[in-house]
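To whoever is covering the structure queue this week,

Two jobs came back overnight. Logging them here so there's a record in the thread.

Job A:
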Amino acid sequence: MLSPEEIRRYSRHLLIPEFGTEGQLRLKAAKVAVIGCGGLGSPILLYLAAAGVGTIGIIDGDRVDESNLQRQVLYGTESVGKPKVEETAKRLQSLNPHVKIEAHFEQLTSQNALEILVNYDLLIDGSDNFPTRYLVNDACVLLNKPLVYGAIYRFEGQVAIFNYQNGPNYRDLFPKPPSPELAPNCAEAGVLGVLPGIIGSLQANEAIKLLAGIGEPLTGKLFVMDALTLTTRIIRIPRMPERPKIVELIDYDVFCGVKIPESKDEISSEELEELLKSGVDFQLIDVREAHEYAIDNLGGELMPLSHLEDFVVNISRDKSVVIHCQGGMRSQKAIKQLREEYNFNNLRNLTGGIAAFRKIV
């Protein structure tokens, strides 16, 4: 039943003949998990809470960074440095005290995904990287849960529903992940601030439709939007006839080619911090582009990967050289190129790039 307070709060839903009290009660009884409370997660979570979804799980292991505020509208300047799930929980409870918020301050992994997600009816992916997308998809398949998918890149956004009523899943759309250098996240590629608001709102819309049992779900279809031209299209997603069966969760960093093997050729953020403090003579090279360097840098020499061959003569062969980028992938590629084409043997990669370093320092 709805309390008098809930009836007043949700009155605009109750007035819709196709929605009404029955639809609102379905929302109240539902348990939804949202993976990521960043750009996509912000509008998703705000609208789910406002709509009256009874239990909302939020899963994120990050803290608020100043660069998030351009698009992650859950947070204010005072939130910088604080765990996202804690700030989100406070914001959602303030928005609607009638909903239950379950905060998981941790990254979703192959080890904890099934245990966390089994408790929810519907899963919504607000992540920004391919390993998490494959992980969430495979967990949904194993748990037989529907998944509302969304993705953004610069000016383009996508929305779909996977694993619903024997429909396709994410692996029907992307059987194999793209190479890491072709799949940068928001921190590397950038994103128009308003775009995750649009795409996240569409994800919330699809979730509410599924939960309330109204409308036509976006299953078997991919909605694509270009914010620059405001054009949209819907692409059909057929099920692959010989799709490999998902039987377990795997190491998705390895599967997507982003896992950096532990070796003497890697240097952690903590090790680099100590190296910088020690006064030891070494060379620090940044292989990002000039516009990225201008936003934030570690004081290294700028040698963009796109023109690396022009800087080979400036790279030392007599001392240790640490190479980094934003997330650790372009620097890996740079090291591979320098070794194979120019026979360097003194290069180390900063694990996780400047993004990881800023979380430590």
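Job B:
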Amino acid sequence: MSKPVVTQDERRRRRPTKTGAVLSEQLIVETALRMLREHGSAGLTVRRLGTALGADPSTLYRYFSGIDDLTLAIGDVLIGRALAGWQGTGEWRADLRELGLRIHAAYLGHPQAAVLTANRVTGRAHEVAADERILGLLRRAGFADADAVRIYHAFIDQALAFAALDAASLALPEAARAADEEVWRATYARLPAATHPHIAATAPLLVARMNDSAYPTALDMLLDSAQAQLAARRAGTAEGRPETR
């Protein structure tokens, strides 16, 4: 005789945990984010998460198939935070710039989680919503579909790559991060012009800029390129050349 099917909601815990909280996906993800911030990725295990929640570790499998499934949920929550409260202006370049900065900032708000999730594809609701909005901005701006996908690809990879790079720096121990930052003053700023003329000439600028993220500059360069491409496309259409999508 086959076993009766138990729905996902029925499998989930209704009684409070030892801490007095009722388990939910949101509570588990928030607790996992706290554990990542305090202990890094090595400290995030089902057993430790169960202890932090005051629940039997096996209870977590009612919500997630394992740590990897939880990791995807964490990544999707970070994207959701980037989208929260965002209202487009109707100007595609300004809107894309703000979205990019929001995504970058959301990941840097949880650097340990960013290192763990920035290279993952979740396929979950917030990620799909972000992709739909970005592609919509580009297509409504007038980009051909092939160009919209190409720019979208560069845009999202750039945002996540810089998020991972900058988050990895923030996730370093404070002493290691301070030592890395000091290298620009202690080494590069003191190189003689006789042997390193180009570094010596730009040393003050290097010291001033190199410890900050280059993401805003890189984002503007990407959007400038896309804007120039769109202008050329419109000029070509105005001259009577056929428009292709």
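Note for Job B: The chain has eleven helices and no strands.

Please reply-all if you pick these up so we don't duplicate work.
Q.
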